[in-house]
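I am still getting used to backbone structure tokens and would like to learn alongside you. Would you supply a protein for us yourself, any chain you care to pick? Start from the sequence, derive the backbone structure tokens from it, and show both lines together. Go ahead whenever you are ready, and we will take it from there.
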Amino acid sequence: MQIAQKVAIVTGGGGGIGGALAERLAAEGARVVVSDLDAASAQFVVDRITATSPGAAIAVGADASDTTQIASLISAAESEFGPVDLYFANAGVAAGSDLEFDDAVWDLALDVNVRAHIRAARLLVPGWVERGEGYFVSTASAAGLLTQIGSAPYSVSKHAAVGFAEWLSVTYGDQGVRVSCLCPMGVNTKLLTDDAALSATAARAVTTAGAVLEPADVAECALAAIEAEQFLILPHPEVLEMYRHKGADYDRWIRGMRRYQAALLGQTS
């Protein structure tokens, strides 16, 4: 996959990983639709892009989990730039703590972190199959391969995002649809640093597990993997070793995670 001259949509593009992806895509010659629930933040990223690459990006305020708004987003991309080549299902929420007893919070996590991907794929994949090419990039998390101490909704929804990306690749990979799944650990974004997002225990679990990367570093890693058409994108390479340990001895891994959780709770008590 060559990025230059491709048309890309990035949801959750108003900052963090999404904003960095949009800027890097434009720098590589793509034409980018930057979408965010916060239209002003999306426009801010577009202003940064067009300051050096006039006409390379537009901003569209949209809810990435709403089918009608996703359809409008795709229509805007087609009207401005042409058929969509790449879709970055990047919007995400760090909703909920522990078991989370509010079903509305579970619904939010599942809607934004999983169903948004499903709804976008329903609209895009048939056309990509007909054209014989297209690229779907799912931003999940290392929590989707491992787990997220302190938040069941986040852990479960990110596991589901990985599972959907796998299924999409297996089912449509021989029909020209490429799929990558981005699974970072700690990244310096509002999702990690905002006190209203992850609980203190969950945030500490992320920040003590490995380096906290800058969004630009994650975007650089992601685009290199996309150009290589690599499914699993791991900006933190150590996640692969953790995943191997999990698969090699599941019970031992769970015991280790319990010990890690106990240590975290001791630090936050």
